[in-house]
Every structure is written in C-alpha cells, then in structure tokens.
Design brief:
heterodimer; A: 521 residues; mainly alpha; two-stranded antiparallel sheet; B: 490 residues; two-stranded antiparallel ribbon; globular
Chain lengths: 521, 490
C-alpha cells in the first residue's frame, strides 16, 4: 500500500509537533486569551484539549491506515524512506525508514488508541498540565517510532527516546516512592539497551547497513560476534522490557508509583515493545538461534507465568497486583514464541494486543477508583459495588477479560498460544495452564475483597463515574475487548500475515539444519 | 619562507591580538572593546583556516615539515577557536569581578588557543612540545586566575602535575629521537617501517611516555587527578574551556602521533591494547567518582574523565581495512558533539551560579525548573546529551564510537562503554531531578534568575542548537570528520 504521501511519518511526528505546540504556547493564557491579549488567568484547560485533538488525529490516521492496509500483500506498507547518514568510506549508513506490516499495524493502532485513553484518563490532572500533556505526547511518538522503524539505529533511537518522558512523568506526577521507581526504570532500561546497542552494531557492521530488511543470514554469520551472543545481547533488552522473571523487578515499582495514564501506556504499549522486538528482530534476523533457544524461551516464559501469578496472589496493593499480573501475562508471549509456529507466534502477537487493551483497562478502572478512594490497599476497600456500581462493572469486566473469559479478547490470545505451543512444548504448556488457574484465583479474589463483600459506609460519599471522559474510555475499551473476543480475525488475520514470513524463514532454517520439525502451522 | 608564515596564519592572528591586548589593557578599560577584539581575533582565525582550506593550501607543509595544513588540522583549528569564542562570550561575569586584569585573561585564552591549534597541525615532536607548553603555561595561570584559595590550589596542582607530565613527555620524545634519529613524524614512521623490527620494546617505552604526557592533557585516568581541583578552582568559563578544548587538542595530537609516526603494525597492536585498558579504566574511574559529587563542577570534571575514556575507544579501535578511518573519525565526531554539549551545560551553570550566590551545589538547583524554565531545560538537554540519549549529539557520537569498537573486534569495549552509559545516567540525572522534581525548601526566598545578557544568550542558543542539529542530522558532521581524518590515512 503506497498512499503517495508520507502518512506514517505524519503519524509518528504528529504527537511530537503537538507536544511542541503545547510547550510553546504561553502558560498562563488560553490560546484565545493569548491571541487577543487580555484577561490573564490560570487557564489549565487548553493543554489537554490540544493533547486530545492531537491524539485523536493520530488515532484517525492509524485507523485509516488500518482500513486501507492491503491485507493480501506481504511485506512492509506505507514505507517512508530516504538515506539519512551515508558515510560510505567508513561504512556507517543509516536510513530514515519506517513502515508497517501485519505484525506492527495492530500495535500501531493500539498505541494510537491507548494514547487517546491516556489523555482522557488524565482529564483531572491539574499539576503542571502543560508539561504533563507535552511529555505524554512525546511518549506516544517514541512508542510509535519503535513499532514502525525499519532501521536498527532508528529503532534504538526511539527505544531510548521513551526514557526521558517516562522518567519525568513518573517522578513528577507519580506517587509514593516515585523518584526511586523512576530512576530504577531508567537504569534497568539503559542497562538492557547497552547490550542491545552492541548487538545492533554487530549486526549493522556485518551487514554494512542498519536497515534490517536487508540484513541477511550470511552477513550475520560473518559478524564479529557469534550469532548466539548477538541474540542474547538483544534479548536482554527485550526481556527487561517485556519483562520476564527475574528481570521484572522494575515493573511493579514503576507501575505502582506512576500516574494512571502512564501505567496505561506502560502496560498497554511499552511492554509490548519487548515482545514485538523479539518477533520482529530476533526471530526475523536470527531464526536459527531462535530455533535453538525455543526450550529456553519456553522455560523462561513458563517461570514468568507461574511465578508472576503466585506473586500476584500475594499482593495487598491493588495497583501492584495488576502490575504483577502483567509479568504473568507477558510470560505467555514467550511461550507462544517458543512454539516456533504460525499459531503460537500469532497467538503471542495477539496476546500483545489483547493484554494492551485489558491491562490498559484494568489500570484505567483502578485509576478512576483510586481518584475517589485515595487508597491502593485492598484491605481498606470493601463493598465498593454498592457505592460505585458503574465503575464496579467496568472493573469486573476488565478482570474477567484478564482471566481469559471466553468471548472476551484475552481468551482468544491465550487459547491460541496454548494450541500453538501444545505440540512442541507440551510440558511447558501443562505447567503454564496453572497460570490461568491462578489468574482466575487472584483476579476473582481481588474483586471479591474490593468490590463485593460487606458494604462500608465509609465509601458512601463516593461519586460514581460521572464525567463524559470516563464513560467514553470505559465504553470504548469494553467495546474493543468484546469485538476482539467475538471477531478476533479482524486483527488475527493481520498478525498471522505478519508472522508468516518469520515462520517460513524459521522452517527453512530448521529443515536445512536437519532437525525435527518444529511446531504446527 | 614567507609562504610558510602564511600557513601559520590562524595561530598568528591569535598571538598578535593577544600581545596587543596585553598592552592595550594598560589604557583601554572598556570591557566591550577588549572582548570584541578577542572575539574578532578568534573569528579571524576561523576565517583564516577556512581560507586556507578553500585556497588550495590543503596538504602544504611548512617550516621544514614541522607544520602541516591539512583538513585534520583545520577541523581542529575551527573547533578550538569556536570553543574559545564560547568561553570568552560567557566570561562577562568573570571579567567584571577582576576589572584590572581583563586584558591578561583574554590574552591568555588567545595564547592557549593558539597553542592548541598549533598542536593540531604539528608534525614534529619539537613543535608538539612547544605548542603544548604554550598552551599549558597559559592555562596554569588561567586556572589560578581568581587568586582565591580554590583557584590557587587548583592552579598549583595543575602546574605541578603538568610539569611532571611535560617532563615525562619530553623523556618519551627523547627516547624516540635517540632511537630513530629524527623528530619528524614521517621520518620516525619511515624508520620504524624499515628498521623498527627488534626495537619494539624501546619504541613502546617511548610510546608509553607519550601516552602519559598526552593523556594528562586529555584527563584520562590514571592521569586525571588534576582535573577536579583545576575545574573547581578555575573561573567556570575556563573550566568549560579546559574540558573541551584541551581534550580536543590532546586527542588531535594523539591521533596524529600514534597514527602518523607510530602507526606501524609492529607497534599498533601493542598500543591499541594500552588504549583499550586506559579507556576502560577512565570510564569506570570517572563515572564512579562523579556519582559521589555534590558540586556540579566537580561532577562534570569527573564526567569529563569518563568522556575521555569513551573517546579513547576510538583510539583502541583500529584494525584491518577501513576501521582505522572509522575510529579516528569517530573521535572527531564525538569531540565536536561533546564540545557543544559541554559548553551548553557550562553556560547554564555559569548563569545559575551568578544568581545562586556562586553556588555550584547540585542541591541548590532544587526547584529551578520553576524559576528559570528555559535555563533548566537547556541544562537538562545538555545532560541528556552527555548520557547519550536521543535526539542529541553525543547519542550519535556514542553509537559511532561503539560501532568502531565492534567493527575492530573489540565488542567487549563497546559493552564496557555501554554499561558506563548506564552508570553515568545515575549522576547526570541528579541535576535534572533537582531542577524539575524537587522543590526548594524556601521557595519564596529564592532569588529570581535574571535575564542573561545577549552574548550569553546567543552562546547558549548556538551551542544548544548545535547539540540538537548534530543529533538530528549527524550526516554532515560525520562526512566532515571523515574528510578530516582521510588527510592522515591517505
């Protein structure tokens, strides 16, 4: 699909322009006041309206792209590219190249959607609103950049770009031990990206280009570092981001102390960058190493699922509980990938999308409840359903989706992963099923303790959902989760299309290596 | 002979105006005129370099091969004069404090810059030594310029250790002369190529002395101990100048001497290892000590030690085919990016100190983001660049240098460098946190930060734009750096 117009660049940089616009408009005036130069005032409203407009614009662009996306053509579409650095003599060539394929298109749409959600859920933020919404938009740009970069250097650039907004968003607008959490997040990520950069450079130097569409297996074989080392280096960064046990300890801290919108973005799309990277870079570029690593990935994935679920069970802080459940759910991604087949991998990709929606919704619901109760402790909440039934319904819905109730989005992803992985990773799947059981346990138990249970008059003054922004978010998220639950192929087809070349490549490598066939297709 | 003098033009302009300033200082008291003359001299020097570049003088040698005008030298001459201009522009406050010694201060900056420029174009060890002394002696005085306790301590430490470093350097040069019978770099290279076999140990001994001497100027660990005290004691514009200009020239001469004279494979394998070890040491030492600092000048001093280590990766990364070019051009690119970034950081620090009662304590930066949002933003941007995060100059500098390491089979060094990036984030983010996240204990009592003067504002704008432009469009500078180092490896 070539629209003859750099629509993708527009999508990526629109939020950045919006951020600049917000930053440059004078602080104490609304734009109108500023233009006609009268009445100074503490108008705090316009940054959020600009942010909403910009993120909605992004969502519309992404939606249009999603609709006109050519579902019959493999490969990248909407490609924008030109040479950016060409230093031939020293072999340092970087391309400005962006494009989407079946794998990244749904994630781009998810990012654009959750960014709107993030803006709406921040509607009541009143601390330094200008900066807040500007950084939120910068964050959107960086995530979109990661999902669409076709050049390793740009991938890395956007990967790092996300740190600054996250650091500031958590440490200025967060709560609790926010400085510690923000710095921990940054240091973990930088630690991972340090190794990732070396891996990327090894690939780029060997192939003489950083455009990963052009990096061939024979070039990687001739790299200065052995392919498994490169694979491991890059995997470190993605595992931290995903996260997998034992590299996950930054996640509960960051999540718990982050403002709601940032939790939504963090759980909804930032973690997905790890899973996306594993599929897009590791398995596309180094399928042979990936095929050898399948058992290791399955084990790590399963450990994450089960350990994550057990730790989740033990949480007394509702937000931390949701955060830990992400660790468990992201383990499914690794399990699906380790199946090495179309079913498992597209299930893993689907899990990225559905978990983004579901956990995004869980954090939204928690955020709305927290705005009212001002406590995160499960023990202090009880019988909330009596007082805020609408929010309660939203929370229960999100919880049920999270535990994989059929006809909701989470079920589709998990069942696909299990189907895909059962043949090749039987033992791992059997253990991982325990994770599903535990998920039902911790979610239902948490709901029971907070929303159900005896009525507590302490909460009788709480207002239920009452603002248009709240209804919009809850409604949209519910609708999407149901839509993906009953009609998953709208996204699943694309994802399958995206992982097919990866799997074909894998099978060629595996069969030429003479080993036993891996995973069903 | 006259044409030889022509080749010395960029330096001569500075020396002549510097001499004039020393005399003019006696009767001309207007700060503006003195500063204007200094800036004009530096600008003239840059224009002279540009003329040499365009008028077909590239590649000419003068003074019996002791001086060369090539793209490499011109790259550094322009960079150094630019850095000096920035240092002069932000010196307003320092000059106001010492009205009687304005001419002296400015003249010393010019002399020091001329020395550094000369260093970049030297192709003879004697010339190298003269240039180095010219710049060092000017800098010793500049560091101790304020004559207060810290200034004197810093200046004296710099002088004493500097004298030892000079002696060591001279000793290395003497060994080299004794072995090869020449002080000319290409003659030394010829000698090593034809008769060097069997004398590796002696040659390496000389090389080690040279590394120590130049490493001192570059503030590479373990020759860094003067840096923190000198930076703290020196007037802040001088600290800024030392951190970028001295380092740049030191790396220029390291590249020149080690690739032109000692670049033979016979030796290169050995000194490559030394550089790799020094790079590692320097990064770790610089970063670990920086974490413990509360004074932002000391923190930046140690960070400059770490940055010198990062730069040294480029020297360690030479091997087969074209990566020789890559390593050296990486250093040039990184230096240019680091120069604008560090100048941006120091400019803001100077401005903040002017209104903070001269405090450089990071804790006194609390709440600054509210009182002076633009200044804080520029400082945060510069610090983010120093970490090596996008979209900034050092981000690409690091990628470029790490690439050279990977390309020459030193992937471990790239890993060390990348891990040090992580360590450095811990302290570079501290002022950012203080400015934007912490609030001052006594919010009302904090002085407002006044609007900086136009010259400072312009400097800040230019260097910040430099950080951003190099970060967004690194291609231009990479090509320039590549052309510059091609002069040495052609």
């Amino acid at each position: 699909m070539d629209p003859g117009f750099p629509v993708l660049s527009l999508l990526i940089f629109l939020p950045l322009l919006g951020a600049l616009l917000i930053a440059l408009l004078p602080g104490r005036h609304t734009p109108t006041q500023w233009l006609v130069q009268n009445t100074p005032g503490e108008a705090k409203d316009y940054p959020k309206w600009i942010a909403l407009g910009i993120s909605l614009g992004g969502l519309i662009i992404a939606l249009v792209m999603f609709i006109i996306f050519d579902r019959s053509a493999a490969g990248f579409q909407f490609v924008d590219e030109f040479d950016w650095i060409s230093a031939e003599a020293v072999g340092f060539n970087v391309k400005y190249a962006f494009g989407v394929d079946g794998l990244s298109m749904p994630l781009v749409l998810l990012t654009a959607f959750l960014s709107v959600v993030a803006v709406l859920v921040s509607w009541r933020v009143d601390l330094r609103t200008k900066e807040y919404f500007a950084w939120l938009l910068v964050l959107e740009t960086s995530v979109l950049g990661v999902f669409t970069s076709l050049d390793l250097i740009f991938f890395f650039l956007f990967w790092e770009l996300e740190l600054i907004p996250m650091f500031l968003l958590i440490s200025i607008w967060g709560s609790g031990n926010r400085n510690y959490s923000a710095l921990k997040f940054v240091l973990y990520t930088v630690f991972g990206s340090a190794f990732m950069l070396v891996g990327f450079l090894a690939l780029g130097v060997a192939a003489d280009t950083f455009d990963f569409r052009e990096i061939r297996a024979d070039a990687i074989a001739a790299a200065f570092l052995p392919a498994p080392v490169i694979f491991a280096f890059i995997l470190i960064a993605f595992s931290i981001k995903l996260p997998v046990v034992p590299l996950h300890t930054w996640l509960p801290d960051a999540h718990t102390d982050a403002p709601t919108a940032v939790s939504v973005i963090l759980a909804g799309v930032l973690l997905k960058m790890g899973g996306y990277g594993i599929l897009r870079l590791l398995f596309t570029l180094m399928p042979d190493v990936g095929a050898d690593a399948d058992l290791a990935l399955a084990i790590i994935g399963t450990v994450s699922i089960v350990y994550g679920a057990i730790v989740t069970m033990r949480q007394t802080d509702l937000k931390r509980l949701i955060a830990y459940s992400s660790v468990s759910h992201m383990g499914f991604v690794l399990l699906g990938v380790s199946a090495l087949g179309v079913t498992g991998m597209s299930g893993a990709a689907m899990q990225l999308v559905t978990h983004g929606l579901i956990t995004g919704m869980l954090f939204v619901m928690f955020g709305l409840v927290y705005d009212r109760t001002h406590t995160r402790q499960i023990a202090e909440m009880t019988g909330l359903m009596h007082h805020i039934p609408l929010l309660g319904i939203g929370m229960v819905f999100a919880g049920l989706a999270g535990l994989g109730l059929p006809a909701l989005a989470g079920f589709v992803a998990e069942i696909t992963i299990f189907l895909g992985a059962f043949g090749s990773q039987t033992a791992a799947v059997s253990v991982a099923l325990l994770g599903v059981l535990l998920a039902a346990g911790y979610i239902l138990w948490a709901l029971q303790r907070t929303f159900f249970g005896p009525r507590d008059e302490k909460w009788s003054h709480l207002p239920d959902a009452n603002h248009w922004s709240e209804f919009t978010i809850i409604g949209a998220l519910m609708a999407l989760i149901v839509l993906l639950g009953v009609y998953p192929s709208i996204v699943m087809d694309l994802l399958e299309m995206g992982v097919e070349p990866i799997v074909t490549n894998l099978e060629t490598v595996v069969s030429s290596a003479g080993s036993v066939g891996a995973g069903g297709g | 002979m006259l044409s030889d003098v022509n080749l010395l033009g960029p330096e001569l302009v500075l020396l002549v105006v510097g001499g004039f300033l020393l005399i003019a200082d006696l009767f001309l008291k207007d700060r503006r005129i003195l500063m204007g003359a200094t800036l004009a001299a530096l600008l003239g020097s840059i224009i002279y370099s540009a003329v040499l570049l365009t008028e077909g003088h590239v590649g000419s040698q003068g003074f019996g091969g002791a001086l060369v005008v090539d793209k490499f030298a011109i790259f550094f001459q322009i960079l150094l004069a630019g850095a000096a201009m920035a240092a002069v522009l932000v010196s307003t406050e320092t000059l106001q404090r010492t009205p009687s010694r304005r001419g002296e201060y400015l003249a010393l900056i010019l002399f020091s810059t001329a020395g550094l420029q000369l260093l970049a174009g030297s192709r003879d060890l004697i010339m190298v030594f003269i240039a180095l002394e010219l710049t060092s002696i000017s800098q010793y005085i500049l560091v101790g310029f304020h004559k207060d306790r810290w200034g004197s301590e810093g200046g004296l430490k710099y002088l004493l250790t500097g004298a030892v470093a000079s002696a060591v350097l001279l000793y290395g040069m003497a060994i080299l002369l004794g072995l090869t019978g020449s002080t000319n770099l290409s003659e030394i290279a010829n000698y090593i190529a034809w008769q060097g076999a069997g004398k590796e140990e002696a040659l390496m001994l000389a090389a080690v002395f040279l590394i120590a001497g130049f490493g001192f100027k570059a503030a590479v660990a373990p020759f860094q101990m003067w840096a923190p005290d000198a930076y703290t004691g020196a007037p802040t514009p001088i600290a800024a100048y030392l951190s970028v200009a001295s380092k740049a020239a030191a790396f220029a001469i390291l590249i020149r001497v080690f690739f032109e004279a000692l670049g033979d494979d016979l030796l290169a394998e050995h000194w490559k290892t030394i550089f790799a070890v020094l790079a590692t040491l320097s990064m770790f030492v610089g970063n670990f000590f920086a974490i413990r600092q509360n004074n932002i000048k000391r923190m930046l001093a140690y960070s400059s030690v770490a940055q010198a280590g990062t730069l040294m990766i480029g020297l360690a990364a030479i091997s087969a085919d074209r990566s020789e070019l890559l390593g050296a051009s990486g250093i040039l690119f990184y230096l240019a990016g680091y120069t604008v970034t560090n100048l941006a950081a120091f400019t803001v620090i100077i401005l903040i100190a002017n209104h903070n009662g001269g405090s450089y304590d990071i804790r006194s930066y609390a709440g600054l983001g509210k009182r002076a949002p633009w200044l804080s933003f520029v400082l945060a941007f510069a610090l983010i660049s120093l970490i090596g995060l996008p979209p900034t100059a050092v981000f690409f500098g690091k990628i470029y240098l790490f690439e050279t390491a990977v390309q020459s089979g030193l992937a471990w060094l790239a890993v060390v460098g990348a891990v040090n990036t992580l360590i450095s984030a811990a302290y570079y983010l501290r002022p950012v946190k203080a400015m934007f996240i912490d609030t001052a204990e006594d919010e009302e009592g904090q002085p407002d930060v006044a609007r900086p003067s136009n010259s400072v504002l312009a400097t800040m704008g230019l260097v910040t734009a430099g950080v951003l432009v190099i970060g967004l469009h690194p291609g231009l500078l990479i090509n320039a750096a590549e052309a510059a180092v091609a002069a040495i490896f052609s």
